[in-house]
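Record 1 of the preview.
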Amino acid sequence: MLVEIVSGNPAAHSGVSGAEHAVHVSLGARMREPRTLLSFAVAALLIAFAVSRANLNMTAVGRVLSDAQLAYLVLGLLAYYVTFPLRAARWRRILASAGVSPASGYAIPGRRGLTEIFMIGQFTNCVAPAKLGDGYRGYLLKKHAGVSFPLTLGTILAERVVDLILLSTLLLASGLYVFHGSTPQDLRPWLVVGAALAVCGVAGIVFVARNGERVVRRLPERVQKHAVALERGLVTAFVRGRIGPIAALSLPVWILEGVRLMAVALAIGLDLSFGACLFIGLLASLLTAFPLTPAGLGAVESGALLALSALGVGSASAGALVLLDRGITYWSLLLVGAVVYVTSRMR
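->
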C-alpha cells in the first residue's frame, strides 16, 4: 500500500502547501470577507424561514424559556463540552495510526493542548463557512508538532468518515425506532443524505487504498509527496485492528448528543424519549455539515424544528428547545471558543 513508502521522519513533512496558505488567514480577516458575510445572511434567511414555517409565537416561546430549570441546562452544557476531550483523544489515536506520535519523533501536544486545538477548530467553524476550522486545526498541529499539513488533513478526513458511518447508522436506527419503522416523508431526505455521504466516504477510502499509488504516479512530481502524506493520514486509520478502538472512542461522543438534548428537554419540562432526543441531536450534527453557513447555522434550526413537529411537539416548546440547544452548541461555543482562542498557547 502507498502509505508504506512514507517516511516517519517529521523533517520530511515540513513543506508548506498552497492549501495551508489558504487556511492560515486571521479570523478577523476571514470574518470580513464577502463570502463569510454572505454566509451569515443565508443563515438569517434560513432561520427566518424556519420560524415562519413552524409558526412560532415568540411570546409563547419566551414563556417556556422563562420556566427553564438551570440545573438541567448546566447538565446539557457538561454533556456537550465533555465531547471535546473525547474527540481530541480519538484524534490522537488516528494520528498514532498514521505514525504521528511522540515515539516517532513528533512533538504532539498533550491532552489539554490537543483539546484546545480541537476547540479552536470548532470555534473557527462557527465564524466561517465550509468547515474551514478543520483545515485550521490541521495548520495548528503542523505549527506545534511539525506534522505535514497534508498528513494531518488526511487524519481529519479519516475522522470525518468514521463520524459519518456512525452518525448515519445511529440516525437511521434511532429514526426507525422513534417513528416505529417509518420515518416521516419530510425527514427521509436527510436520512438518505447521511447514508449516501457515509457510503461515499467508505467508497473513497477503499478506492484510495487500492488505487492510491497508481493515482500518485500520474500527478506532477512536486505534489506527489503531499499526496502520499494525505493518503497515509486517510487510510491507515481503517487498517484492521485500528478502526475498532477509534470507533469505540467515537460512540460516546454521539451518545452524548442524545444526553444533551434530553437534558435540555427536561429543563423545559418536555417529555421526550432518549431515542427521540438522540435522533434530533444526530440530525442536528448532520446538518452542521451544511457548507453554506457557519456550523450549519439556520439549517440546524430548520431541521430540528421539522423533526420536533414530526414528533408532535408543540411549536412553543419546540422553539424553546431549539433555542436553548443552539445556545449550548453554537452561541456558548462562540464565547468559550473565543476565550480559548485568545488565551491558548496553541493558537
